[in-house]
Structures are given as C-alpha cells and as structure tokens.
Amino acid sequence: MSALLPQTGPDVPVVRFAPSPNGLLHLGHARSALLNARFAERNGGTYLLRIEDIDRERSRPAFETAIYDDLRWLGLSWPEPVRRQSDRFEIYGQALGELGKLGLIYPAFLSRAEIRSRVAAAEAGGTTWPRDPDGAPLYPGTERDMPDAQRAARIASGAPFAWRLDMARALQGIEQPLTWREAGEEDGNGAPHTADPSAWGDVILARRDTPASYHLSVVLDDHDQKITDVIRGQDLFAATSIHRLLQEVLGLRAPVYRHHRLVVDETGRKLSKSDADTALAALREDGCTPATVARLAGIDADLEPFASAV
Q: Per-residue pLDDT tens for 266-295?
C-alpha cells in the first residue's frame, strides 16, 4: 500500500480534545478534556483542541463559541490557531482519491430507508442479519460489484450515493493480525489489542454532501497533528479497528489509544448533548465550580495544574 503522508516522529507526547460543535459540552466531555490535559501536563507534552465540524448541517458557530467558553472556564488553554475540520476538505478529498486509486472504495446508492427495508424483509423471513459493534445492520454489499458503466451512469444522473470501503479488498493487503496499543487512561505504554475491522462491514467514508466520515477525517488529522496518544471515551473502542485499518492502508502513524470510562446517568446510559441538566453551561449557572465539575466527571485532582498544562 502507498503512503499518503510523510512519516515523522514527535519528541514529546501530543494529545487532543476534539469535540463537535453540534451541542453543548456535558460532564462526559469534561472528563475527556481534563484527562487529556492532565496527561499532557504530567508528561511535559502538548494539549491540542480540534473542532470536528465536518458535519456542516449540524455544526453551529454558537456551539463552537460555547466550547471555547466552557473549556476556558475549566482552566484549560491550547495553542492557536485551533484546527477545524471544515478547513481541510481538500485534504480529505485527496485521501479519498488515494483509496480510489487503490481500488478500495465504491459508490453505494442504497438509501438508509432502502437498507432498513431489505434488512427487515430478510429478518422477517427468518434470516439473522449481521450487525456492527454499535448494533446497526451491516450494509448488504449489493452494489460492491456493480459494473463501472452502470456506476458512471448512476452518478451522472445525479443519484445520491456514499463512498464505502470495500472491507474485504482492504484487508487483503494487510499483514495479519492487525493490532493497536491500548493503555490506561493516564499511564502505561499499552499492550497489543487485536483489531477486527471486518465486524463493521463496508463502512461509509464519505457522502456527496460530506467530504469525509468521522473515521477517515480523524485518522488523517491525528497523523497530521502528530498525535501520540488518543484519549477518548470507551464508546469509540470498537471503532479503533476501522481506524487502524485506514492507518495501515494510507501509511499513517498509529498512536497509543487510551479509552476511558464514560460518565453515565443514574440509569447507566451515557450522557448526550441533549441532556441539558448535565451541560457544563447549566452547571456553571447553577453555581458549580470547575473543581466540582471535575469531581462530578470522575477526575480526582485539584484543577490548578490544568491551567498551566499547555
């Protein structure tokens, strides 16, 4: 496989907190932001903020401003300028083109509703439909071998489509087993963990109205920003398998991964941006201090070191 970007190794740890500006930050975000900052502070590293606003339909400037306000209130700082994914559409397009040259992507025209209908019909007939680690039905793959002329005609007609990764072909060129280094939240060098990208099927890497999926954009940005340690929630643990495959295919650097436990509500459900009662802005208005928020987020430490972390 060919390398898309040059390989260079950073001398110090580099971490990032990368929220999406599609809602207000909550306690779960505070936990991730503070863990990243503490890791950087304790290891003499760099703490970066990245705005993952690739979903232009849901991203809002007001939410981005709120992110800055909440993080500064927590005592965090970061180098400027802040990386914004909406400024990197051309880079993501180049990577998608590279995957196209390798023959690893194809246009898929089935809508979400059509996929749901096919899955429902199959299951009604007694077929057990495979699902990805998040519980979503796998794409049926019916368009994977569509003739080139038919594909070109569909695209020329203006039919909406998504670019999907041909998982089987991508795995053919990868030395097995594919692994990543999984470490503790704040210490350890990490032990090998076996990746299983095939569990996700032919994932979407771009749509006509969105130049890259989260999976594609995050590995490109982590490589370009020389991220050494990805500290993020346990809900993204399984998705790391896709990220490791894309890193191998595109010749990108693989960081150490540190998936931390989630902050959950009283029912055990992970927090959502729609949960106004856990929004940092609401907690601040109710009189909570940054130290109280840190404790609520499961961070057992004085906040003072964070202010000078970067």
A: 666 677 665 555 799 999 999 999 999 999
Closest CA to 260 of 76, 12, 25, 37: 37
> What's the length of the chain?
310
Question: Left, alpha or beta for 217 (phi > 0: left; psi -120 to 50: alpha)?
Answer: alpha
Helix ranges restricted to H, the chain = 27-42, 61-73, 89-101, 112-124, 148-156, 167-172, 214-224, 240-250, 280-285, 290-296, 304-307
Between CA 54 and CA 298 the distance in angstroms is: 29
Question: For residues 255 and 219, what is the distance between their CA atoms, to the nearest angstrom?
Answer: 10
Q: Which tokens sit at 126?
A: 């007694």
Region label for 190, one of left (φ > 0), alpha (ψ between -120 and 50) or beta (otherwise): left
CB burial of 90-126 (b: ≥16 within 10 Å; e: otherwise) equals ebbeebbebbeebebbbbbbbeeeebeebbeeeeeee
Bin 288: left if φ > 0, else alpha if -120 < ψ < 50, else beta. beta
CA dihedral 110, 112, 117, 120 (to 10 degrees): 120
Cα separations (Å) of 200 from 136, 161, 207? 9, 19, 17
In sequence order, what are the beta bridge partners of 105? 165
**Mean local confidence (pLDDT), 236-250:** 98
Residue 211, burial from CB neighbour count under 10 angstroms (0-12, 13-18, 19+): buried
Query: In Å, what is the CA distance from 91 to each residue of 96, 174, 239?
Result: 9, 24, 22
**Count of beta carbons in the 10 Å neighbourhood of residue 182:** 16
Q: Is 264 strand, coil or helix?
A: strand
**How would you classify the pairing of strands 46-51 and 83-84?**
parallel
- Binned at pLDDT 50, 70 and 90, residue 7 comes out as very low
Give phi and psi for 163, each to the nearest 5.
-85, 120
Give the alpha-carbon dihedral of 134, 33, 21, 109, to 10 degrees. -30
